């Protein structure tokens, strides 16, 4: 089974972000601040083991840390941390339905707002 993704289809983050960008005008100004915070809160340039033990529990709340843990494992030719893979898939499946419904329900109203 080959799964392909059409480049015209938005992802989960794109679905939610597009609706928020239209209806919440301050979202465009808050997005760079939010992305900067997420950049520093995600273990991109450091390993999660380098964080103090008390702060490692906070990394568990960040879904991007699971993504980076999987990428670190692939780059270092180590086995994948399956708990991170399962969390990423579960979060994606959990958010896909509600974000698609939110996007589809807001389409008629987007034309009115714009």
Question: Which properties best describe this structure?
Answer:
single chain; 114 residues; mainly alpha; 5 helices; 69% helix
Q: Major β-sheet, in short? A: none
Question: In sequence order, what are the helices and strands, one letter per element?
Answer: HHHHH
Structural class by sheet pairing and helices: mainly alpha
How many beta-strand elements? 0
The helix content, as a percent range, equals 55-70%
Walkthrough of the structure:
The protein is mostly helical and 114 residues long. It has one domain. It is built from five helices and no strands. It has helices at 12-23, 27-41, 53-59, 63-75, 82-113. Helix 1 runs parallel beside helix 5 and helix 4 (63-75) crosses helix 5.
Outline the secondary-structure elements.
Blueprint: H1 12-23, H2 27-41, H3 53-59, H4 63-75, H5 82-113
Helix pairs in contact: 1-5, 4-5
Short summary:
With 114 residues, this protein is mainly alpha-helical. The chain is built from 5 helices and no strands.
